Amino acid sequence: MPDRPHHHRRPTYPLAHAARHKPRRWPLVLRFAKGAIHTLIVIPVLLHSLFTVIVVYLDRHVTGNLGLPASIVPSLSIVVGLMLVFRNQTSYDRFWTGRNCLTTIGTSVRNLARVFLVSARGKEPGEKLTDAEKADTEKVIRVLVAILYAVKHNLRAEYNIPPASGIAEENGIMTAKAEYFSLLPDGLKGYEDQGLGLPLQLTVLVESYIRRGFERKWFHGPQASQMTVQVNGLVDAYGRMETIRTTPIPVAHLIHQKQVLALFNCVLPFATVDDFGWWAVPIVAIVAFTLYGIEGIGVQLEDPFGYDKNDIKMDGIVEDTRQEVMVLLEEWRLAADGHSEDALGGMFI
């Protein structure tokens, strides 16, 4: 019996990519990059600060009567606060829903992979699978993992199955998509130019395998029905993620929010110039920094499927699930080839 090939394991653990935390070199209060929203708000903060400088200068050295009653600030701040609370709650709900949907898809892939691998065995006890049956099962497991990649890329508007040149080395490093392409069945033709998303196309291959497994008597009727429910749940979760991706916050709300924020921060210098003089400049800058920062957080969370630091860690989550499923596939392959004693804990004996 041939020895099991020796592989160099890279250090890993469950959820290693999705839950990785680097040690913080600086406290968060001192961080102005890598996750911060300062670049989104620096221009409005500077403009409002400059406007305050002009107001204070005119009040002190030209007109002398630009001040407004300070009581105007509380009435405006209530409106601003309500709008910002609504915006951030809506944006975080989109973020949280997207994360839960991705978990639903990952769970469906795990469940289906587990059932497929455990159920794929010879018709009689001790009988080995045929080469065609083994190849069919390996293909569908790879398709399951490919669904995760297809969902990720479609939500990022990275459509089409690229040509072979897309997996070439770039600067000596294989592109991130190379692993994804290797999971797709040979000769797979995409129909995205006709409006068919690749995730849905791949679920058809999974459903076809369930039918073949039922005909091979690998699954009984209720079991096959339950697996179809898993596929339906996967498609439903992807549909909800598509809804988040394709349904932005209504433009009327965005316009009014921007106008209310600008109005409030333009009125604030007039309400503070009499009491604070030149101190009104840093006061307005701090208020503008706070309010526009809250709005900037909502902008970051509104579409959580991209590459920003504050987006869902889709790359890490997909990689963790891929690694789990591929380890299961490797152990199943050993058991199917008659090397059961080499498989981890005899999972597929």
Automatic annotation (TrEMBL):
GO cellular component annotations of the record: membrane
Does the record carry Transport as a key word? yes
Q: Which UniProt keywords apply?
A: Ion transport, Membrane, Transmembrane, Transmembrane helix, Transport
Pfam families per record: Bestrophin_2 (PF25539)
Major site of localization recorded for this protein: membrane
| Organism per entry | Zopfia rhizophila CBS 207.26
Q: What is the lineage of its organism?
A: Eukaryota, Fungi, Dikarya, Ascomycota, Pezizomycotina
Query: Which protein, by its recorded name, is this?
Result: UPF0187-domain-containing protein
Q: Determine the domain of life of the protein's source.
A: Eukaryota
Record bears the keyword Transmembrane helix: yes
Where is the protein localized?
A: Membrane
Instruction: Kindly list the residue ranges recorded as spanning the membrane.
Output: 35-58, 64-86
Question: Which GO molecular function annotation, any one, does this entry have?
Answer: chloride channel activity
What membrane topology does the annotation report for this chain? Multi-pass membrane protein
